[in-house]
Amino acid sequence: MASTRSQVETLVSYIQHAAQDALAEYERTGFNTPSLDSIVAHPLDDVLNTIALKRAVRMLEGACDQLCTTLAPPAHTIINRAQDTYWACLRVAVENNIPNALAGYPNGVHVSELSNKVNIEPGKLLSILRLLAARHCFKEVEQNVFTNNRLSITLLSSNPLAAYTTLLTRESQIAAYHLTETLADPKDGPSQDPRRSPFVRSLKDSNFKGTYYDYLSTHEDRRNAMSRGMIAMNAVIGTLSIIDLFPWSNFSTLCDVGSGIGAFSMSLLEHYPHIQITLHDRKETIALAEETWKQKYSANIEAGQILFTPGDFLEDIPAKGFDLYYYQLRNILHNWPDAQSILILQAVRRAAGNNSHILIHDYVMQPLSRGSESKVGGTQLEIAPTPLLPSFGSGNIRLYEQDMLMLNIYNAKERTIEEVVELGRQANLRLEKVWDLAETSVLEFVTV
């Protein structure tokens, strides 16, 4: 085994090379790499991160975190992680529209004046802004004077990322607080019932008895936040990367299952205008999708190229015999325990034709020990070089955070390739190929 000094030197080398790769990817667009002070979006910020940039950042984050964790005393690292309240300050910033209040003030606003704009006591507001600015969200231009920067400008209320941030810092954190007591409960602890998740437990005083989806159906503001937030999530994780990789031109019809308002299909239609698209989701969501599409695609709707089909994809998919069935990351297998996941796959198998392809866009759980890589043929995901963890560790941290999010909200989980293959087998589906998008993957199934 290499010495710790040798491992540290290797990690430093990875950081240097990955930083150069990231710089090259930014500059490939013809624009300079943006500074933290910039409030103008770079082309790579706007719609999707390229796979090359995602790979560079994955290496940077994995190597930097492992380097710091190696060299810092353990108590230093543990306390930093246990004490972290950055998420709470982000929620305050978004829900009080602090980025909006600072918009148009490049020289900054004193916290006493900003306090009047956002109705937060100035001393408490100062503490919140200091913590955020210490990690480069907002900038303190002079003492107690703050302005927007490259990170905070993405939290303007007009940006779907603001809605997604509220989801992650409200429901997600409330559920996480109840994780310990849920695990200790003799009924809830071993259960995979989505009605026994930590999030549902957080609502026990209100006598709520459903799943998270039932909660959304009766809370319009949170349902709308979810729909808008998924637009941001798709951009952040590089969902649209599959548009550049998959041979969409070979197919004519697509059913977007669990479509939300159809953000992915909008982007797909821009690149492949020949595809006939059917959006399929819950009744409330499809109603919102139809209104959204009418704003720009009314001619496509009138021509019958875009269809809207409300329903429950656990029970039936009305689009029969389509070329492609695309399941988005937002509410597919990782949101459901095994029993419901099998129902989802059986429903699409009933709808699919003999030549249909089923695309499941999801995180794929990766091992943290070497030699544990997937043995399923033709599905090898990229493995990090030593001494990094094989999954890139913190460079792929959203995978593991997403796994916990699924547990806390839905009582579900992210799955390994082997686990998804087994679910598919029980629904008469065979894994054909895994498309590696450097964070998420698209698992392509065919019928058997």
TrEMBL record:
Keywords: Methyltransferase, S-adenosyl-L-methionine, Transferase. SUPFAM superfamilies: S-adenosyl-L-methionine-dependent methyltransferases, Winged helix' DNA-binding domain. One of its GO terms (molecular function) is methyltransferase activity. The keyword S-adenosyl-L-methionine applies. Residues 184-202 have a biased composition (Basic and acidic residues). Residues 183-202 are annotated as: Disordered. It holds the Pfam family Methyltransf_2. This is S-adenosyl-L-methionine-dependent methyltransferase. GO terms for biological process: methylation.
